[in-house]
Amino acid sequence: MTRDKKILLASILVAVAGWITAAVQTINASDFRQAAGDAKNDATIWKRQAGKTYTELLKERAGVDGKIIIPAGALIENGEIYPPRDY
User: Fold this and answer.
1) Is residue 87 assigned to a domain?
2) How many domains does the chain fold into?
3) For 15-50, what is each residue's pLDDT tens digit?
4) C-alpha distance from residue 84 to each of 8, 39, 67, 81, 87 (Å)
């Protein structure tokens, strides 16, 4: 095998390895995007559940007179009360 053929073969192998690496990275990136989307959906569900639970906790603490004291820094969204960040 001549020197030129060896260099050509090495170049072809490097190119093929590069394409394989690019394909694997593309597959991994799409899996990561899917996982990130799933995590965002889960976070939204958990946030909603936490808001409902916190609202119920405040209602229970209010007692029979029904006066709810909302702590400073609480976030109110869609009728749900979310605890302050440092709670």
Assistant:
1) no
2) 1
3) 999 999 999 998 888 888 888 999 999 998 988 888
4) 65, 22, 19, 9, 5
